Amino acid sequence: MPPAGGSTFRSSHDDMNSFEVFLEDWMIRQEQILEELLLVAQDMASNIVESQEVNSTVVMRDLISRVLAHYQEYYEEKSRMTHRNVFQAFSPPWFTQLERTFLWIAGFKPGLAFTLVTESVNDLSENQVQMLNLVREETKVEEKRLMEELAKIQESVTGFQFVGVAGRTGVQLLNTGNIEAEMDELRTAMEIVVMDADRLRTGTANRVVGLLNPLQSLRFLTSAAQLQLMMRRLGKQKEAESQQNNNNNNNEV
Question: pLDDT by residue (tens digit) across 100-113?
């Protein structure tokens, strides 16, 4: 029988590969969705004949529902991955270094939604602005609460310093007897924080969409998809350039 540590390591490696495969497929579909968003938004932004307005609204609402379902699929799969190994959620090897730079509690900061709305929607009504500002303030309060909760975990759990390398060695650390109980406690507490952060992310986005009209929602969702795909493309480009430079340096030695 193989050592427990080796078995756990392979399980972690399999989990990582499984989510990475899912993410690559999800990103391909994200690109397809972005193309559809751009096409529909372009059509709807033109002068709509009054008799076509109802059908146009139906088309937009259907697309918005499918986009939100696409994101929901991501968070459901992420939740399963986080439950298997929460440490990898904090240092995800399936993201590029550039993407990881912008992570906030294992994902994008919820307040980013308001920046995207400001940049992509220029026809907000006064009432919409007021309601969005209200949601923004409520989101800030929740962001602060989650950061305070994470700080409490850091202060209360001995051995938290291992989190910085947990993406690489967290699973092995769980097999060392002298810190096993503390790492279990840490893992549970961190999983709860990630789940709460993901709920805030999805909840904030859904509330924002709920305050926008269909065409405004398309612009907002288009902006979000463009930012995500751009960061991934630039991150992969930088990694490819770095790898090429390393290969060139090795060839010169």
Answer: 999 999 999 999 99
